[in-house]
Amino acid sequence: MTGPANVHGTAIVLGSTGLLFVGPSGAGKSSVALHCIHEARTRGLFAALVSDDQVLVCEEDGRLVARAPESIAGLAEVRGAGIVKVETVEKAVLNQAIRPVAPPFAERLPPEGEIFEVLPGHILPLTRLPLLAGCTAFSILATIHPEILRD
User: Fold this and answer.
1) What is the pLDDT of residue 21?
2) More exposed terminus of the chain, fewer Cβ within 10 Å: N or C?
């Protein structure tokens, strides 16, 4: 077991898939993650927050595991509205990194095989999640990763 490292991001679970939303401040990590939790629940899927803004990540048995710092467990920031309480799980295995991106896009297609190094030598596959007018973040995520709907 290595870590934990404090990663700037938001970690959630949809079904049995652990997602780590990453990107610069103001990119929409928290709002997109909270939207995905809400939309998944309306479809009858299990969904919960692990941690918002700060995610403690460590390696356990070859897997990356996310937890919340005790001081912010169960809380999320809704930018412009404040801090809210959200149903959480204590920890989750991370399967995928998600980077919300807003138009205009520098590239039409992302590079193949993108990764996000969470800890030195420990990576997650990275998916860019375009935030498009007229589409919900959850619907785009489910289109890119339909397996989240089957968990």
Assistant:
1) 98
2) N
